[in-house]
């Protein structure tokens, strides 16, 4: 058949632009356990494990940790060389084929066995060269291995190897001896990419057909160096050339289309994503090519952007089963790209860029009627972003110019019904003149109807065009725009019906025309008469009152429901009857300090807090937390929030201004698979002939009963936020939800049959559909086996017969009864003694002895597996004074109640609380983040204070309180557990010295 060759160069001018931080690249490197920073290959096996071949060995990754396989000198069952050039996965058989710098290696994933094939100079049946650069399996089960000198076909059944070389003058030989890519297409044809184009293997003639060569055998590509080939779902083979760019090859038509790139040094490609080809270059970063739009986007390393790709030399690419793209670099580790994890900031502060946002907190955001965005920055003045010009204009205070902004601390921005822009600052109110770009200032003037304060926290407008201004400590102001006069409303303790407080944070006028005012001392509503207020305050005795008097923000949703955000009491809903419904961290809110609230087009509330962005569904009453895994650059949000006419939501933070649509895509929505990765027997790996994840039944001796199970979910979106639950039928009465902790230890398991179950969820809280189940049998000791009991019975019979002969029946009966009573007493005494050794008799929590044992064991476990361990040390404030004035019996009761309160604050099964001294307690929390430790510590202090135990002799409160020190650490061998404990103890006394009834929680410098 006549060959057809089509060489096309796209006529369109294609621009490769910088990615503008569109994507966020997560990193894995040596600090995470990767054996080497040059990653040549990536695959994913049946279990969901990711495998990385590197220049420092083979790595298996489960989302939490790496298992490394290296070359071990003088051993046969080992990797033949540390430097792996390529990797191929025989998925169905769970076999990895590794091309190394010392031959080809077959690694059986399930048996963990290596079988190696070497190059031998004097053996023509061995590999043609020691450096293996490409591997593929054909339909007959044979393995094709390309090297730097020839092609090889390995018969895996016999071990025989046949070599293929370029033969001068023979157009049916391979076109070059350097082989860089081998693939099997959907029709089971083998294609070979060389340094002189590509060819196809003809099985019938055992020869090769050069598909893009002229009569002399030379390739017609502009560059003959084929580095990689992949076939897409439509049957098109894409070719990555070093020097030409990307080539589209239709094998049915034998036609080629060249797609030029600015950076044509292509090394690897990934084509399994619909309409998208990912291209790895050698020195010019990563390129995303949209095959429909014919658009190319480049991603390069940036020294100033820690979320950019880590290196411009890309060594390998792989798309996993959750559509995450893994990028191996040649020198700076692995990059993980989750395409839903987008940098959603539209503006940020960049000292190197003149046209960027001012640095500081975004106190206010306004999208005006002309499409411009106004941002009030704390200390950074007023910023005006004009999207049509992609331009930021900064307005700042100029001391010599009274028409400039009055102060650089901007607290509020508002557009009135006449499209005027009003700006509240820390030194007066400003009115912006659009035509001149100047500002008119409004400041307090003694003796005139002027504004009452200089710090303007918030601005709103009523239906009669009156403007309302909330000030800092100077009450509420109403501006009559016709007369220009201000009416001031202030708190008067002697006047019932006055506003609740003079510090106004926020105001809204609801759909019924009611003016609501959020203050630092409760919520106020102006009556219809316009002269008096109804006030709502926190009442500790009334759980339907507001949770906290400091109310930071107010919002009325599309269903005319009023929501309150407090500075420490969470989210509140007003029930229109003077009562409030509360939502706090106990209901799923990430933090009780709320700074901003708005609503998306779907009726969900977006809530910016001091720790995380929450999306709340008022109908299902559920929260979804957005964190760094979703593209956030930090967890703290400012008070600035806005929703524009298109439904886009803008939120301010220290890292810039975020923009979200009302329907953002975050979730993978695919249940993970949970894998049992390790089993430890007395803290050492259990010896097994098969991988732990394949074990279905485990039989152990009676004294092999101290077991640790380590497990993982194969969802890699945000592995640190995957959650786990386990249950040992026969020991655990219900499922134990361990949060992010992926291990559990069972000690002194009694002989018997058990079933160990595990399930997991990904970071989007989607749980596994199938549990991992392991049957566990702990055998009885020899002395309690059935044949031992037969022996005991025989011996007992002989003894009884002898006793009958020697003694009378009555004496024997009395003796037997006496022995039985003694045995019962001894058993009861042993149980009491065992409890006394680890339980504190007063508080019924663990004692210091048990804490010391448990602390040592958990420290060693955390050191071995590079996991965090956390401590909280607690002391009752002014306890001696309490004992001296109320008596030791009352003091014991305080210790007992404090212990119970602290114990109730623990969040996961592995946490323990112990009485460490007289009035001192210690909480041990394995595998827990510092942020979670701080939450528990804070809750302990709150719960003890809620006990409301009178203590009139306290130097701080008049009730019993506690102080605490807390910290978290990932232990290293150079750090001892005693040093860490001493450091946390110092944090406790730092809290004591700072006034008691407080805590100090931070990382220690050890």
Topology:
Blueprint: E1 17-18, E2 23-28, E3 39-44, E4 50-54, E5 57-61, E6 66-69, E7 84-90, E8 95-100, E9 103-108, E10 113-117, E11 132-137, E12 143-147, E13 150-154, E14 161-164, E15 179-184, E16 190-194, E17 197-202, E18 207-210, E19 226-231, E20 237-241, E21 245-250, E22 255-259, E23 266-273, E24 276-281, E25 286-290, E26 295-299, E27 314-319, E28 325-329, E29 334-342, E30 345-347, E31 362-367, E32 373-377, E33 381-386, E34 391-395, E35 410-415, E36 421-425, E37 428-433, E38 438-442, E39 456-461, E40 467-471, E41 476-480, E42 485-489, E43 504-509, E44 515-519, E45 522-526, E46 533-536, E47 551-556, E48 562-566, E49 571-574, E50 580-583, E51 594-599, E52 605-609, E53 613-617, E54 622-626, E55 637-643, E56 649-653, E57 656-660, E58 674-681, E59 684-685, E60 697-700, E61 707-713, E62 723-729, E63 736-739, E64 743-746, E65 752-761, E66 772-778, H1 786-806, H2 809-838, H3 848-864, E67 869-876, H4 879-886, H5 888-904, E68 912-915, E69 920-926, H6 930-946, E70 962-969, H7 977-993, E71 999-1001
Helix pairs in contact: 4-5, 5-6
């Amino acid at each position: 058949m006549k060959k057809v060759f089509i060489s096309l160069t796209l006529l369109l001018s294609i621009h490769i632009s910088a990615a503008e931080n569109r994507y966020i690249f997560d990193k894995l490197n040596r600090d995470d356990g990767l054996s080497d920073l040059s990653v040549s290959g990536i695959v994913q096996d049946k279990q969901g494990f990711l495998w990385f071949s590197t220049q420092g060995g083979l790595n298996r990754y489960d989302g939490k940790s790496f298992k490394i396989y290296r070359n071990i000198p003088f051993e046969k069952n080992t990797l033949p060389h540390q430097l792996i050039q390529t990797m191929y996965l025989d998925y169905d058989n769970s076999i990895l084929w590794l091309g190394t710098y010392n031959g080809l290696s077959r690694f059986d994933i399930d048996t963990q066995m290596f079988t190696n094939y070497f190059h031998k100079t004097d053996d023509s049946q061995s590999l043609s060269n020691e450096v293996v650069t490409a591997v593929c399996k054909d339909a007959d089960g044979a393995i094709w291995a390309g090297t730097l000198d020839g092609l090889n076909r390995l018969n895996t059944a016999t071990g025989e190897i046949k070599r293929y070389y370029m033969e001068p003058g023979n157009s049916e030989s391979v076109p070059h001896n350097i082989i860089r890519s081998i693939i099997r297409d959907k029709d089971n044809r083998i294609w070979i990419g060389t340094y002189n184009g590509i060819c196809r293997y003809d099985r019938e003639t055992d020869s090769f057909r050069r598909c893009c060569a002229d009569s002399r055998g030379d390739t017609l590509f502009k560059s003959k160096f084929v580095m990689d080939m992949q076939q897409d779902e439509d049957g098109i083979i894409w070719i990555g050339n070093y020097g030409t760019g990307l080539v589209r090859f239709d094998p049915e038509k034998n036609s080629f289309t060249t797609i030029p790139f600015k950076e044509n040094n292509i090394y690897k490609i990934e084509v399994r994503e619909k309409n998208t080809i990912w291209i790895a270059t050698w020195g010019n970063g990563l390129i995303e090519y949209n095959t429909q739009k014919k658009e190319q986007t480049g991603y390069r390393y940036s020294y100033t952007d820690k979320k950019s790709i880590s290196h411009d030399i890309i060594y390998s690419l792989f798309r996993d089963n959750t559509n995450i793209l893994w990028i191996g670099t040649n020198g700076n580790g692995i990059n993980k790209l989750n395409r839903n994890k987008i940098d959603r900031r539209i503006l940020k502060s960049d000292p190197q860029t003149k046209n960027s946002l001012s640095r500081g907190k975004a106190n206010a955001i306004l999208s005006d009627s002309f499409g411009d965005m106004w941002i009030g920055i704390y200390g950074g003045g007023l910023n005006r972003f004009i999207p049509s010009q992609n331009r930021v204009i900064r307005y700042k205070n100029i001391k010599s110019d009274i028409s400039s902004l009055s102060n650089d601390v901007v607290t509020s921005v508002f557009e009135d019904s006449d499209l005027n822009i009003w700006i509240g600052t820390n030194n007066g109110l400003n009115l912006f003149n659009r035509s001149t770009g100047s500002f008119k200032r409004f400041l307090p003037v003694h003796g005139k109807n002027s504004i009452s304060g200089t710090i303007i926290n918030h601005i709103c407008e009523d239906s009669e065009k009156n403007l309302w201004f909330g000030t800092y400590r100077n009450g509420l102001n109403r501006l009559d725009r016709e007369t220009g006069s201000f009416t001031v409303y202030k708190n008067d303790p002697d006047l019932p019906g006055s506003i609740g407080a003079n510090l106004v944070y926020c105001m809204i006028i609801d759909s019924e025309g009611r003016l609501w005012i959020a203050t630092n001392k409760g919520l106020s509503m102006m009556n219809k008469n316009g002269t008096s207020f109804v006030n709502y305050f926190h009442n500790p005795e009334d759980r339907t009152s507001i949770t906290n008097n400091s109310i930071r923000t107010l919002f009325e949703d599309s269903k005319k429901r009023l929501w309150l955000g407090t500075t420490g009491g969470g989210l509140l809903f007003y029930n229109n009857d003077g009562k409030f419904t509360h939502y706090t961290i106990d209901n799923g809110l990430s933090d009780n300090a709320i700074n901003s609230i708005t609503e998306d087009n779907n009726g969900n509330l977006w809530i910016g807090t001091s720790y995380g962005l929450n999306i709340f569904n008022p109908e299902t009453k559920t929260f979804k937390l957005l964190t760094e895994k979703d593209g956030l650059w930090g967890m703290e949000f400012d008070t600035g929030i806005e929703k524009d006419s298109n439904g886009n939501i803008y939120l301010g933070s220290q890292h810039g201004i975020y923009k979200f649509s009302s329907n953002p895509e975050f979730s993978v929505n695919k249940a993970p698979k949970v894998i049992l990765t390790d089993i430890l027997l007395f803290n050492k790996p259990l010896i097994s002939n098969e991988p732990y994840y394949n074990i279905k039944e485990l039989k152990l001796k009676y004294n092999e009963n101290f077991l640790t199970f380590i497990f993982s979910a194969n969802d890699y979106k945000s592995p640190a936020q995957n959650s786990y639950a386990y249950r040992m039928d026969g020991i655990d009465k219900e499922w134990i939800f361990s949060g992010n902790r992926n291990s559990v230890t069972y000690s002194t398991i009694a002989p018997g049959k058990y079933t160990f179950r595990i399930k997991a969820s990904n970071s989007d809280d989607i749980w596994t559909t199938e549990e991992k189940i392991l049957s566990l049998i702990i055998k009885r000791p020899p002395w309690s086996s059935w044949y031992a009991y037969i022996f005991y019975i025989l011996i007992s019979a002989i003894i009884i017969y002898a006793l009958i002969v020697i003694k009378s029946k009555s004496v024997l009966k009395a003796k037997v009864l006496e022995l039985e009573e003694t045995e019962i007493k001894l058993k009861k005494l042993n149980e009491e003694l065992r409890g006394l050794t680890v339980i504190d008799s007063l508080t019924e929590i663990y004692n210091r002895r048990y804490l010391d044992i448990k602390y040592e064991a958990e420290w060693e476990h955390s050191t071995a597996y590079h996991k965090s361990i956390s401590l909280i040390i607690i002391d009752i404030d002014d306890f001696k004074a309490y004992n001296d004035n109320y008596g030791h019996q009352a003091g014991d009761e305080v210790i007992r109640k404090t212990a119970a309160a602290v114990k109730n604050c623990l969040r996961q099964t592995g946490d323990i609380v112990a009485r460490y001294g007289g009035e001192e307690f210690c909480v041990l929390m394995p595998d827990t983040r510092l942020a979670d430790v701080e939450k528990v510590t804070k809750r302990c202090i709150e719960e003890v204070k809620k006990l409301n135990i009178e203590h009139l002799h306290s130097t701080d409160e008049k009730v019993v309180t506690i102080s605490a020190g807390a910290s978290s650490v990932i232990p290293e061998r150079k750090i001892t557990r005693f040093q860490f404990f001493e450091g946390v103890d110092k944090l406790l006394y730092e809290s004591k010295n700072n006034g008691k009834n407080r805590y100090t929680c931070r990382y220690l410098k050890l």
